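seq/struct pair 1
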Amino acid sequence: MRLTDSTVAALKVPRGKSEIIAFDDALPGFGVRVRRGGSKRFIYQYKLNSTNRRVTFKEANVKRARAAAQILAAKVTLGTDPALEKEAAHDAAGDTFKRCLDRYLARPQGKRRERTLQEIRRHLERNLQPLHRLHVKEIGRRRVADELMRLTAENGAVQSNRTRSSLSAFLNWCIGEGYIDVNVAAQTNKHEEIARSRVLSDPELRAIWRALPEQGDYRDLIRLLVLTGQRLREIANLSWSEVDLDKATITLPPSRTKNHREHIVPYPRRHWRS
């Protein structure tokens, strides 16, 4: 039969069947599926590489559905698989920032230190949480710039710039995976960082020193920080293998320093608790 609005409206599902498919005589593969409940959906059915494939249309009348089926028929003639394209488009519609980010963070991280990974997660998961629900392709340069400006106001330029770097690396990965074509973060401006110039004065250090407990690890930790000028984790994670009591030095291995170089740090003998 040639499908028309009137012939489609007259179609009924025979007793004992849940649905029927009526194909159009004028366009092979074009048809309408009628279910017992009364729903009717137009379809285009074709065979590609010995496999039967089917695409369902949302069009409500025969004229528009036939036009859509003719486009698909032309694609099939050229070797394209319309059903596969539709599946890919549907999957891509779910590529939100959060979905892509979960895949990015789940991949092997190589030799990155856990501290570095924690910072990256903080930048992308917490600092950029407002972007999570958006489709990754819909995030433009202006939106990224606005988020970085917000971070600068709330947390300072350093945190904003570090987040920008983590975001840029993530978007480069997204480009390689085919989620996006452009790294919009790389085209945003960095915010000016003001170097910290405030240091504790001698009277302030003296006040802290005198306020410490008479004994205990906390006292030793703070005193070593004051005496050596090292970073908190470099001293907090100190092990006896890194301390030379005879030479009164601390040797920090490359794995525990920011520049990945060995540091030999002297300390005053009289302040060390044996």
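seq/struct pair 2
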Amino acid sequence: MSVSRPSPEMASASGGYRYRVYGLSVRSDLPLPELNREENPGDADVDIRIGRVPPSAEEGLSFGPDGAILRINDVASYLMRDGREISVDPCPDASDRNVRLYLLGSAMGVLLHQKGLLPLHANAVEIDGRAVAFMGESGAGKSTLAAWLHDLGHRVIADDVCVLRFDEESGRIRVDPGLPRIRLWKDALEGSGRSPGDYQFSYAGDETYEKFDVPVPHERSTAAEVDLAAIYLLSAGGGFGITRLTGVEAVEAVFSHTYRGFVVSQIGRDRLHFDAAVNVVRNASIFRLERSRDFGDMAAEVSAIIAHARHLPGP
């Protein structure tokens, strides 16, 4: 299905704005310029609506009979129901960009779990027609690596949230396209040769939070699912090294780096999550990638990663 950048001023004739992300057709009351527009959409998999959200006792995520509620002070409240619908209740005078930040981040992450999908806290790029994912905690360098690979001509598949799907017939794991952007801290942005003045802050209204959104043009991002070649778990080290993870260690890595993984138990999907993690380990190569995190070493390290990924066996 073809996608293109949206025109925020014009909603779909079928009602609402129409987008495609994580392999899902999305209908939204809100314009979402971060996403790719869906041409000739059919029935929506996800509805995003402006509506009243029941009050929650405190800021953060809570669960109740209505669904999962995420409340962010001075931004918005979000209600996620049945993996099908997100209601958005913005606070007065909240920045539209901040409302979308949490909608497309934590709120969408909860919805993905409700749908039974496996979202990893990872970035993914395409190398020789296959997906390579970089998994790790915030600040581990996932987006930095994705930016360097993007600048070398490799298409970006996903930033920060990487959704995996399983093809039961072939046994292959596929990566669905995520948000066509790369989010970088100021030092990583400058280290990649970019200027902060050319990009918007990820969070509006707090310039001490020096993270920036770098949009990826449609032709430099991937619009269709891609077979997964490998997952690299990033860790800091004294030098560069790649070692294979297997068995319990590999399963634990997937568990620990599931995006918003604490949601799994709350919605009763522990067994499905375990089965999905085991399936990943059985059908994909998982490695620990140690890096120096010195920008002076980036060119050599990225070249070594590309060479390693290109020599991986097929599914």
